UniProtKB/TrEMBL annotation:
Protein name: Uncharacterized protein
Organism superkingdom: Eukaryota
Length: 78
């Protein structure tokens, strides 16, 4: 249980974070979101395949980490 919560807290969730760009006081830094997830929020909102969303979340985890690195092909995929 703790491991799952820790994974969520450090890994992020592209779909949930898209919601921060809507509503009464939306975030106004969509290009930071794009740097983290590889796509702007409106694009990510349209995604429906869980495998694709998981890939974006993994990408964001690597992008935000000082300890995790991807291969050259990993970065070229985004």
């Amino acid at each position: 249980m703790i491991r799952q919560g820790n994974k969520w807290a450090h890994g992020g969730d592209a779909v949930v974070e898209c919601l921060l760009y809507r509503g009464i006081r939306p975030r106004n830094d969509p290009y930071d979101f794009e740097l983290l997830y590889g796509f702007l929020p409106p694009v990510v909102e349209c995604l429906r395949k869980q495998e694709t969303i998981n890939a974006l979340n993994i990408y964001a985890t690597v992008q935000a980490s000082d300890r995790k690195y991807g291969t050259e092909s990993f970065y070229q995929s985004f």
